[in-house]
Every structure is written in structure tokens, then in C-alpha cells.
Specification:
Heat Shock Protein 90; alpha+beta
């Protein structure tokens, strides 16, 4: 069983006012057409009642209400006529455009406009008097004017809804951008934190294990000295990171200097001290041209961190042998390579989390470079672990001239 939707309270109010107003006009004897002697006066109330009932359906069934209302309006012209019936019909025309389908909202103003023009020329051709223009005016007021008003209101509503949706989308995109910026900043901080302290903490872990396992006082004292040195270095790096987070370039404060490739000698000197007991030898092969131009700061920082993380991994996992760091700057590309012996190693070793490789890949990806990391076979047939990064590196000398 089909149930009609409950009418809106405004529609009920319009229907009641229209019906009562029409009954009042009928009781006062106010009519809109010439007297019809063929039927009694009360017949005028039938189209009025039908039109008032259709007002209850103006939102839920606007198309059906308009079609039936048109028939009721035509029938009203063959009775004494009631102004309330005509007014309620204009409201049905307006509601059909506002609450109807998009296709109906486009077609109804056009159709009523054509009907208005046709009625105007038809009346002139039939009556051949200037007063015939009034028929076209009345037709336009009853049909085209409310349809045009409804179309205007609907267009304004659609424009307002589109503006609201655009505002929501803009707010959503802004929130997405903010979340992405926060995520990127957190990832950058995580990379910096890992790269700053991993090398020092790994050395501390290795030498603290050695100090606990070796019974010789001198060896334990040497291990403790290395632990202290790396603790101080790690604390310095942490302070530098805190300075970056606090934006320490304010008045009276020196900006924190990011590590660069010029500091690789000091970095290798440090890891030589740490890795001396592990049988590791560290060699730097800097193939860059002397005075060949300054690289962009992000490239130098990324290259330094890649070397630092690779050396840290060598301290953790490499078997005794030579760890070689190579640098080459050709064809606007900086190539960074670190090779270390691959295999089991004796003595204490620090655990690894895999975060270092992830951080290196993120750094290289941000610069649109490439990274290869994994075991390979050297020319002499031995297994080595190789890290090879290629970073786009335009000469930045002119920026500092």
C-alpha cells in the first residue's frame, strides 16, 4: 500500500489559508469570470478545494500537483471563477520549478514563456483589439512569472550550495595539507634524530658490551673513554637538533650549522677510534675536484647523513676488513658510495632496527635521486655490502658569490 509523504507544515498553512480565502471570496460574491448560468455558484468551490488539496503535495509531488492543478485551473474558467484558485495555481507553478527535478526546472520556464507568447498572439489574431494583450499579460503573470521566480531562486540556492561545498573542500584540502606537512616534518625530525645519535649510541653499545666482557683494566678504561667521547658527541648533536626545532636564528644567537661533506674527515676519524677493536679500517676516496664548487646544502646534508648511517651500519655488522667511502661529482650528479666487508663478525655487536635504510631512502627520494643498498660480489670474488646513492647536484657556487 502506497503511503503519501506527510506534508510540510508550511504547505498545510498555505492550503488552509488558500481554501478559507477562496470560500470568503465566494461568500462575498467576488468572482473572476462572467456569470455561468449553466451551473450553480457552488461548483466554483470544487476547483478551489482541489487546488487547496494540491498545495499539500507541492513539495513531495510537484510535477503531479502542477498537472492536476492546470486541469483544475482550466475547469475554474468554466465556473464563476475564484481568485484564490488562480493564486494557489501560481504557487504550484513556482513549487514545481523549485522542488521539481532539474530537467523540469529547466523546461517549465521555457514552456510557460512559449505559452505566454502564443496566447498573446492568438488573442490578438482572434479578437483583433489592443485589449487582447491583457490576456497575454494575465497568462504571463499566472504561469511564466512564477516559473521564472522559481528558477531564479533555485539557481541562487544551487550557487550557494556549490559555494558551501567549495568551502568545505577548501577546508578539507587545507586540513590534508596541514596533516601532510606535520607528517613530513615528523619524518624529517625522525631522520635527523636517528642520523644524529645512531652512530654515537651504536659505538656506546659496542664498547659498553666490550667493557663488561673484557677483564683487563686498560681495555676497559679505553672502552670507557670511547663511550664518554661518543656520549659528549651525541649530546652535542642533540643540542643542535633542539636548536633547529627552536629556530635558534634569533637575535643574539648563532644559527646551527648543518653537517657538510667537509666534515667527513672528522667523521671517519671518530669511527676509526670506535672501530679499531673490530678490525675495521676506514678509507675515504674523495673524487671531487678541489675547489670544484659548492653543492646545495640539502645535497651535502643528505650525502653526509648517508655516509654517517652507512658507517654506523658497518660498525654494527661488518666483518673485519676495509670500509671505503667514495665521492664523485660529475655531470651534475653527486655519487656517494660506501662498501664494507659482508659476513659474520666476532665480538660484540649492536642491534639494528632497519630505520637507517628507511631514512636514507627517504632523503634520496626527497631530492629525486636513487639509492642502491645490499650485498654484491666484488671484482676479487668476495662478498661486500654496498650502499650507492646518486643525488642531483647542480653547482651552487654562484649563489654564494
Amino acid at each position: 500500500m502506497t503511503r503519501f509523504p506527510r506534508p510540510h507544515h508550511d504547505d498545510v498553512l498555505i492550503a488552509v489559508i488558500g481554501l478559507l480565502g477562496g470560500v470568503l471570496l465566494w461568500g462575498l460574491g467576488l468572482h473572476t469570470t462572467a456569470m455561468r448560468e449553466l451551473m450553480p455558484s457552488w461548483v466554483t468551490l470544487v476547483p478551489l478545494a482541489v487546488m487547496a488539496f494540491l498545495e499539500l503535495l507541492r513539495r513531495s509531488c510537484p510535477r503531479a500537483a502542477l498537472l492536476i492543478g492546470t486541469a483544475a485551473l482550466i475547469a475554474d474558467q468554466f465556473t464563476f471563477g475564484n481568485l484564490a484558485t488562480v493564486i494557489m495555481y501560481t504557487d504550484l507553478m513556482y513549487a514545481a520549478v523549485v522542488y521539481g527535478s532539474p530537467g523540469a526546472a529547466r523546461r517549465i520556464p521555457v514552456i510557460t514563456g512559449l505559452i505566454t507568447v502564443a496566447m498573446t498572439f492568438g488573442a490578438l489574431a482572434w479578437l483583433r483589439q489592443p485589449e487582447a494583450l491583457l490576456i497575454g499579460v494575465v497568462t504571463g503573470l499566472v504561469s511564466f512569472a512564477p516559473a521564472l521566480t522559481g528558477a531564479t531562486l533555485r539557481n541562487h540556492r544551487q550557487a550557494a550550495e556549490a559555494a558551501r561545498l567549495r568551502a568545505q573542500q577548501t577546508a578539507l584540502l587545507a586540513e590534508i595539507d596541514r596533516n601532510q606537512a606535520i607528517t613530513a616534518e615528523r619524518a624529517r625530525m625522525a631522520r635527523e634524530l636517528h642520523d644524529m645519535v645512531a652512530n654515537n649510541l651504536s659505538a656506546i653499545a659496542i664498547h659498553s658490551t666490550a667493557a663488561l666482557s673484557i677483564g683487563e683494566p686498560k681495555a676497559s678504561a679505553d672502552a670507557l673513554a670511547v663511550i664518554r667521547e661518543n656520549s659528549v658527541q651525541g649530546l652535542s648533536e642533540m643540542r643542535r637538533l633542539i636548536g633547529l626545532l627552536r629556530d635558534s636564528g634569533g637575535a643574539g644567537q648563532e644559527p646551527a650549522v648543518a653537517p657538510a661533506l667537509d666534515g667527513l674527515d672528522a667523521l671517519l676519524a671518530q669511527v676509526r677510534t670506535v672501530g679499531s677493536d673490530s678490525g675495521l679500517v676506514f678509507v675515504l676516496d674523495d673524487g671531487r675536484e678541489a675547489g670544484g664548487g659548492r653543492l646545495p646544502a640539502p645535497v651535502e646534508l643528505a650525502a653526509y647523513r648517508i655516509v654517517q648511517e652507512s658507517l654506523t651500519n658497518a660498525l654494527k655488522h661488518a666483518s673485519p676488513g676495509t670500509v671505503t667511502v667514495t665521492l664523485a661529482h660529475t655531470d651534475h650528479t653527486l655519487t656517494v658510495g660506501v662498501t664494507s666487508p659482508y659476513g659474520e663478525r666476532p665480538g660484540p655487536r649492536a642491534p639494528g632496527s632497519g630505520a637507517g635504510l628507511v631514512g636514507m631512502r627517504e632523503r634520496v627520494t626527497l631530492l629525486d635521486g636513487s639509492l642502491e643498498a645490499g650485498p654484491v660480489t666484488a671484482a676479487d670474488g668476495t662478498k661486500i655490502w654496498q650502499v650507492r646513492a646518486r643525488l642531483p647536484a647542480e653547482d651552487d657556487t654562484e649563489l654564494y658569490a
